[in-house]
Design goal:
By secondary structure, the protein is an alpha/beta fold. The chain has 11 helices and 10 strands. Strands 1-2-3-5-7-10 form a 6-stranded mixed beta sheet, sandwiched between helices. Strand 1 and strand 2 form a beta hairpin. Helix 3 runs parallel beside helix 4 and helix 6 runs antiparallel to helix 11. The protein is globular and about 45 Å long.
């Protein structure tokens, strides 16, 4: 399960050591961690990362298909997390140390900055291959955070981007060696921590991504 630590002005949220799929219990733990970050006072920033080969493999499809009656509520919770991360009133950095797939890749896009391991691991939106259409809110998020051409290729071909390819496509901001992913993310976050001492950053994000946030929060339950 996720764990939260604080290093000076930077909170580091480790998403876990497995596939880090967005199971309901996982969503609850991440939500509680974000509550802690938001309620803290003074300068602060957030880095999310994980332990092992995977940053996040996205939706917990096994749980989802075992609980079909809960599809709309589950999708709503996932989209609420994406909206919350996108508008979080602190500077956020995704330290993508391993694979980021589907909703896990979308979660990385909801951060202000992404740092990815250069030599191994893929960033991928596989929905076209697994026959699960993007919800309107997810589509809006991807299109808001990527260039039109990159969004089109990533969404329609399920291309797998390694670190260098992801950097060239503008999906991530930095591609660095494995041992530098987390330290680089913490350094970047720390440099912007003072902005969270005032409410302005949150207001800017909310207005910058207003239509995306509205779409993510509509909760029409459409998936598949």
């Amino acid at each position: 399960m996720p764990t939260l630590e604080r290093h000076d002005d930077v909170f580091v949220l480790d998403l876990g050591g497995g596939e880090n799929r967005l199971h309901p219990d996982w969503l609850t733990e991440v939500g509680a961690a974000l509550d802690t970050v938001e309620k803290a006072e003074g300068p602060r920033a957030l880095v999310t990362t994980a332990t092992g080969k995977i940053y996040s493999n996205g939706l917990d499809l096994d749980w989802l298909f075992a609980h079909p009656e809960q599809h709309p509520d589950y999708v709503a919770r996932v989209q609420d997390l994406l909206a919350r991360m996108l508008s979080l009133p602190v500077f956020t950095v995704a330290a993508v140390q391993g694979h980021a797939f589907a909703a896990g890749a979308m979660l990385s896009l909801a951060h202000d900055v992404r740092v990815m391991r250069a030599d191994r691991g893929f960033w991928c939106l596989p929905e076209a291959d697994i026959n699960i259409p993007f919800t309107p809110g997810m589509s809006a998020l991807i299109q808001a955070r990527l260039t039109p051409q990159t969004a089109h290729v990533a969404m329609t071909t399920a291309r797998r981007y390694g670190g260098h390819d992801a950097l060239a496509a503008g999906i991530v901001d930095l591609a660095v060696p494995e041992g530098e992913v987390r330290p680089t993310a913490v350094e970047l976050a720390g440099a912007q921590a003072a902005k969270a001492a005032h409410p302005t950053l949150g207001t800017i994000k909310t207005r910058l991504y207003g239509p995306v946030l509205d779409s993510l929060r509509e909760h029409d339950g459409r998936i598949g």
